[in-house]
Amino acid sequence: MSLQELWLLLPVLIICVGVLTLMLQAAWQRNNVLAQGLTVLTLTLALGALIRQYPTDMRTITLLFEHEPIGGFFSLLLLMVAISVALLQGPYMGKNSKEVAEEFYILLLLSCLGSILLVMSRHVASVILSIELMSLSMLAMLAYNRERKLALEGAMKYLLLSGAATSLLLLGFALLYATSGQLLLTQMLSSPMQLVAKSGFVLVVAGLAFKLSLVPLHFWTPDVYQGAPVNSTLLLTSLSKAAVFALFIKLILLIPPEFEADMVRMLSWMAIASMLLGNWLALQQRSLKRLMAYSAIAHMGYVLVAGVIAMGIDHSLVLEGASYYLLAYLVASILIFAVLTLLSKLDEQQDLDDLPQLQGLFWQHPWLASVMTLAFLSLAGMPITIGFIGKFYLLTLAVKLSAWWLVTAMLVGSAVGLYYYLRVIFTLFAPLQRDIQQTSGAYLSKMWIGVITAGLLLLGILPGLLGDELRRILAIG
Amino acid sequence: MTVPIEHGFVLVALLWAIGLIGLLARKNTLFMLMSMEIMLNAAALAFILAGSLWQQADGQIIYILIITVAAAEVGLGLALLIRLRAHVSDLNIDKLDELRG
Amino acid sequence: MEQALVELWPILLYFAFTLVLLGGVMLVSTILGPRTRGHSTHLPYESGILPLGNARVKFANHFFLYAIFFVIFDLETLFLFAWAISFEQVGVTGFIEALVFILILLIALVYLWRIGALNIRKRHLPEQN
């Protein structure tokens, strides 16, 4: 490992140092505010380091990692999510929580580290380690409130099922390794594929589809989302989805041409099923977290459409579309969960989650309700929000490829989605029923929410602002 | 005389199936954790076999990584199990059915 | 099969020899050995400490923590072992990397020690029946 490679790894190294510092801090002097400050500082430094040496072309860092524009863009998204969670955890936890505060930040940094490494991986070993680092530390955060039985239940289910999914993923990689004799992802998939190798690849896709909660492997999502503390749910719905998707798209772009037709068929069905089933099941939900879980399934279906199209036509345009859509999804998720976080407390048995509990939020906390409304409109793909542009990108691409099944499923899904998103919005504006408490103070977190909301609107009104920039950031076209 | 490599992969498939059946059929959460562990180890064994097929040490390295990951996973699982004991008196997975919608 | 027998015959011989030896010793001692019938003959440990209570004592789950720490730290030595094997090849860089690895482990250990995960408090001792 040369010094130059170390220099390229700087954002990762900063996070590592942050983790160790926080551990020492927790060992000597427990302090809620200090831990939060250190975390935000670490993440900001990492963000700065990443922007400072933003990759313009692909460079390998030892055998295990690579530094390339698309991964860089995803890392930016991941750091943004991690900063949001770190800022929200303070108000969510309050000053005198029964749970310890520092460990949450340690786990947050660890899962952020895992996700960034996952995006950078180019070797089976680094994929395994980073994907597990990410999901195991996330698992501990899902059960962070030890008094909540539901959180423990959700975490236990997630642990058992994700263990099974991981074994699928590993088995798939083992089969690919057995047939090709290579462990680098690019070389592993470039050799001609026999039946064994093909089934291995399908197993890998299944393992990743579990983490993305695509339809045949989506069943864990609502339970885990509902059980977990709302801030950890935010992390699960954004961080792990974005990072795994980065790997997913990297893998399916490597498929050899003779296997492409089969994969396109399989992934198309998965995407269509996710979009329809996710939106359909979300219709009947009263719990907002379950609703977001089904909505996440549907949105992952939309993003998968981009992946399917990517195999059909030239990659660059599709990567742009997928990145934009994912950005829109992450921004909206962050905002919705941020509002819920500000209205809930970690120490209570339940988060504010039931839809009737939110009734009339606008009349009491107009700002929070407006932010939430905008976020839901963006998820529904309404104009002047970033979600509209994201959907527009994908639809144009799908039409260009004349993938009419996908287009139909997207349109039907969006129409159904619009219905239940509007239902939530109407609830927010209904007459006030009972008092809703929000966390007072926490100005920093609220300012951050404001910044993200502004971004949502700005990019929705002026898509060109990022559209051209995005092409440069991703170093394509 | 060496054992043919196909036998090894049959063993992998059998181990994995045993783990899966255990995960699906068992009611005790502790045994479900064990079954999950068997599944992970089946995959790890597959890496060793693949490594020996190509006469490389890489398969064994990956094996070490996998058992490290599995140890962390089981540590977390047991910790969750102990917390669950405080809420539910036994380890029956069917007691965990409050999340539905 | 033929070849396997050729390769394995020392082990088979060893097994057979052990069986014969064990059987022979037991047989000879039953025939020749003196028989006494004292009051402590049938205790499990004739000359040790007398067993007390039930073997199925409930242990507090704090001991599980030790087991897990052991498993985790034990696995980490595996990585050091891999480093030790390739010590010549990896050179100074490998040495520095191993040092960093050990440093991280050390910080984890310090963390565990300071938050009191290594203490056995009174209430964690096994319950007395």
Automatic annotation (TrEMBL), chain A:
Broadest EC class assigned to this enzyme: translocase
Limits of the NADH:quinone oxidoreductase/Mrp antiporter transmembrane domain: 121-415
PANTHER family: NADH DEHYDROGENASE
General function of this protein: NDH-1 shuttles electrons from NADH, via FMN and iron-sulfur (Fe-S) centers, to quinones in the respiratory chain. The immediate electron acceptor for the enzyme in this species is believed to be ubiquinone. Couples the redox reaction to proton translocation (for every two electrons transferred, four hydrogen ions are translocated across the cytoplasmic membrane), and thus conserves the redox energy in a proton gradient.
Keywords of this entry: Cell membrane, Membrane, NAD, Oxidoreductase, Quinone, Translocase, Transmembrane, Transmembrane helix, Transport, Ubiquinone
Keyword Isomerase: no
Family as reported in the entry's similarity comment: Belongs to the complex I subunit 2 family.
Residue intervals passing through the bilayer: 6-26, 33-51, 71-92, 104-121, 127-146, 158-179, 199-221, 233-255, 267-284, 291-313, 325-346, 367-390, 402-422, 443-462
Protein name: NADH-quinone oxidoreductase subunit N
Catalytic activity: a quinone + NADH + 5 H(+)(in) = a quinol + NAD(+) + 4 H(+)(out)
Keyword Glycosyltransferase: no
UniProt cross-references to Pfam families, sorted A to Z: Proton_antipo_M
InterPro entries for this protein: NADH-Q_OxRdtase_suN/2 (IPR010096), ND/Mrp_TM (IPR001750)
Entry's EC annotation: 7.1.1.-
Compartments in which it is found: Cell membrane; Endomembrane system; Membrane
Any GO BP annotation: ATP synthesis coupled electron transport
GO molecular function, one term: NADH dehydrogenase (ubiquinone) activity
Topology in the lipid bilayer: Multi-pass membrane protein
Subunit structure: NDH-1 is composed of 14 different subunits. Subunits NuoA, H, J, K, L, M, N constitute the membrane sector of the complex.
GO CC annotations on file: endomembrane system; plasma membrane
Organism: Paraglaciecola polaris LMG 21857
From TrEMBL, chain B:
KW RNA-binding (keyword) present: no
Biological process terms in GO annotation: ATP synthesis coupled electron transport
Pfam families: Oxidored_q2
Coiled coil segments of this chain: none
Enzyme Commission number: 7.1.1.-
Subunit note: NDH-1 is composed of 14 different subunits. Subunits NuoA, H, J, K, L, M, N constitute the membrane sector of the complex.
Name of this chain's protein: NADH-quinone oxidoreductase subunit K
Annotated organism of origin: Paraglaciecola polaris LMG 21857
UniProtKB/TrEMBL annotation, chain C:
Cellular localization per UniProt: Cell membrane; Membrane
Pfam families, alphabetized: Oxidored_q4 (PF00507)
Source superkingdom: Bacteria
UniProt catalytic activity: a quinone + NADH + 5 H(+)(in) = a quinol + NAD(+) + 4 H(+)(out)
EC number from the UniProt entry: 7.1.1.-
Enzyme class: translocase
UniProt keyword terms in alphabetical order: Cell membrane, Membrane, NAD, Oxidoreductase, Quinone, Translocase, Transmembrane, Transmembrane helix, Transport, Ubiquinone
HAMAP family named among the record's database cross-references: NDH1_NuoA
SUBUNIT field: NDH-1 is composed of 14 different subunits. Subunits NuoA, H, J, K, L, M, N constitute the membrane sector of the complex.
Function of the protein: NDH-1 shuttles electrons from NADH, via FMN and iron-sulfur (Fe-S) centers, to quinones in the respiratory chain. The immediate electron acceptor for the enzyme in this species is believed to be ubiquinone. Couples the redox reaction to proton translocation (for every two electrons transferred, four hydrogen ions are translocated across the cytoplasmic membrane), and thus conserves the redox energy in a proton gradient.
Protein name: NADH-quinone oxidoreductase subunit A
Source organism (scientific name): Paraglaciecola polaris LMG 21857
Name of encoding gene: nuoA
